[in-house]
Amino acid sequence: MADIKKHWYKEMAVYQIWPRSFKDGNGDGIGDLKGVLSKLDYIKSLGVDAVWFSPLYKSPQKDYGYDISDYRDIAPEYGTLDEFKTVLDECHKRGLKVIMDMVVNHTSDQHEWFLESKKGHDNPCHDYYFWRKGKNGGKKPPNNWRSIFSEPAWKYDEGLGEYYLHLFATEQPDLNMDNPKVREEVKDIMRFWLEMGVDGFREDVITFISKKENLPNGIPIPIATGFEHYMGGPRLHEYLMEFKNDVLSKYDCMTVGEAPMMTPKKALKHIAEGPGQELNMMFHFQHMEADSFLTSWIRRPFNLKKLKKVYANWQEGLYGRAWNALYIENHDQPRIIDRYGSLEFREASAKMLAAMYICQSGTPFIYQGQEIGMTNINLPEIGMYDDVSTINNYKLGQKLRLSDKTIMKLAMYASRDNARTPVQWTGGKNAGFTGGEKAWFHINPNYTEINVEAAEKDENSILNFYRKLLKFRKENEIVIYGDYKEHYPDSDKLFVYERNYEGKRMLVICSFCDKPCVFKTPEGFDLGKGRLEIASYENAGNTGNNFILQPYECRVYMF
User: What pLDDT digit, counting tens, does each position of 129-186 carry?
Assistant: First the structure.
């Protein structure tokens, strides 16, 4: 048995709030801190231990907060800094830690640093960003890199006669982390929030902050040309250790980095426990690609075998060496039921997916609305979307001469806007999200059936299943610290694994089948000697070691 080090961040569960769509407290149609404050008791009732806020900072909202214009203040539409401090205090009173989103790969083009950088080469902020002369007499960009949002990664500025680098939206210029002054700015921002009392950071695309020297051309591929030169760059480890040693190590805080194209082997370089550990956990995307290639806009049939292999690689590869971050939904992904579950068996598949990931080793993150089984909204026209990534992908589809019908089919399935519809609190006007006339964005019409108020009244709801799961995790260390062993890896219907810890055993059984499915207990287990702790169907019971699982059924046995 591996030597597992215990820590509070391993034992907590985290609730993610995307503030614009969580709860409107002042009637203007936009989610805000007053709305958050009004729902803290609800959040606490879930059994979570922390709240992660997607960006609350001042921002022109071109990428809904991930384009920051002031790192030390709150966006006026969300409230004030004093209101944030009140929310922080009230969270702490309830035993909830607060995690802030830290976005330091780029700023908004309205940030003071960028506005100053445009004034000339002699401005102290000019080298805070990647400004470069163009090629061919300035007519062509400095290299062939493409942004993650499906457009060229360089924008020409008439005033300076130079291009600036933006790996995301045009309005999100990349910071030059090679400049030590920029790193000092980042450390000061971290100290500002940690001194206020926040408990840690989720660090956005943190593996992009070091670019290869001289910014060479990348391999020309349709998506993100240049990726190999800005993912895991040459000084990434140096910078992350600098942030840790100079700031983070001075506080009892946690960090979770976000890292596209991450593997367990690469992750261990950042999160392996010991003196060289830079971050506590890493968000990766491999398990979110079981129905796509690199991006959910390139769809393939859902592949359970692929999903299980990814989980096994991370569970086994990190166990005893580093810690997993577990999630199945967030603000950047369409809703999971539409992807890996079934709208026909919405409640059953939502419960199964919850047990599937929460019973693994790692810290579970739950995204707003996930706990009631919210689904994609499937908006039929591009003019109805707000997400910059969706709009850019639509334009790319047009350039590739795809039909509008094809592009919209992809958008309805894959758009990030699917996860950004207002939380459905009640079956009343505007789903109880706002007391105003209209919400800032479209509300899913199924709010009359899928909402918190209805779920609270149903003891067998998805919501109450999440509560039961999180309580079970908190009361059983095996769920947190146990090892992981998969069974039936070649099954395309069943996801079955066991956990072992200090003499206890746990068996997790999940059906990904929309029809009744035969289950045979793995060798070495006798269900008659185990306790059925979690069951997604009311009539589940010990029916011997061979039985029929109902569609999307899940069971958890303890031995």
Answer: 999 999 988 889 999 999 988 789 999 999 999 999 999 999 999 999 999 999 999 9
SS3 at position 436? coil
Instruction: State the amino acid at position 152 in one-letter form.
Output: P
Among 146, 126, 62, smallest CA distance to 155 is for 146
Select from 284, 293, 380 the least CA-distant residue to 332.
Answer: 284
Q: Is 258 a catalytic residue?
A: yes
Pairwise CA distance, residues 303 & 36, whole Å: 37
- How far CA 196 is from CA of 19, 98, 183, in Å, comes to 20, 11, 20
- Please identify which of the residues 63, 171, 258, 498 carries the catalytic annotation: 258
Alpha carbon 402 to its chain centroid, in Å, reads 30
pLDDT, residue 295, reads 62
CB 63 within 8 A of CB 172: yes
C-alpha distances out from residue 3 to 288, 321, 371, 410, 532, Å: 29, 9, 33, 45, 28
Q: Name the catalytic one among 204, 332, 498, 533.
A: 204
SS3 for 452-482 is HHHHHHCCCCHHHHHHHHHHHHHHCHHHHHC
* Greatest pairwise CA separation for the chain in angstroms: 78
Letter string b/e over residues 444-480, b meaning 16 or more CB atoms within 10 A of that residue's CB: bebbeebbbebbeeeeebbbbbbbbbbebbbebebbb
**Both tokens of residue 96?**
């909830």
Kindly report, residue by residue over 328-342, the tens digit of the pLDDT. 999 999 999 999 999
Which distant-in-sequence residues (6+ apart) come within 8 Å of 395 by Cβ? 150, 151
- Token pair for residue 33? 């801190």
Task: Classify burial at 392, counting beta carbons within 10 Å of its beta carbon; exposed 0-12, middle 13-18, buried 19 or more.
Answer: middle
Q: Is 523 a catalytic residue?
A: no
* Three-state SS at 77: coil
* Residue type present at position 328: I
Helix (H) / strand (E) element for 149: namely none
DSSP assignment string, 322-385 = S--EE-S--TTS--HHHHHS-STTHHHHHHHHHHHHHTSSSEEEEETTGGGT------SSGGG-
Spatial distance between the Cα atoms of 99 and 116, rounded to a whole number of angstroms:
30
In eight-state DSSP terms, residue 55 is P
Measured N-to-C along each axis, helices 388-399 and 404-414 cross at an angle, to the nearest 10 degrees, of 150
Ramachandran angles phi, psi of 454, nearest 5°: -70, -40
DSSP structure class, residue 173? P
Residue 415 contacts residue 387 (beta carbons within 8 Å): yes
Q: CA–CA separation, 370 vs 387, rounded Å?
A: 20
Q: Which amino acid is at 524?
A: G
Q: How far apart are CA 128 and CA 107, in angstroms?
A: 10
Expressed in percent and rounded to 5, the helix, strand and coil fractions of the chain are 35, 20, 45
Helices and strands counted in the chain (H then E): 17, 22
Report pLDDT digits (tens) over 69-118. 999 999 999 999 999 999 999 999 999 999 999 999 999 999 999 999 99
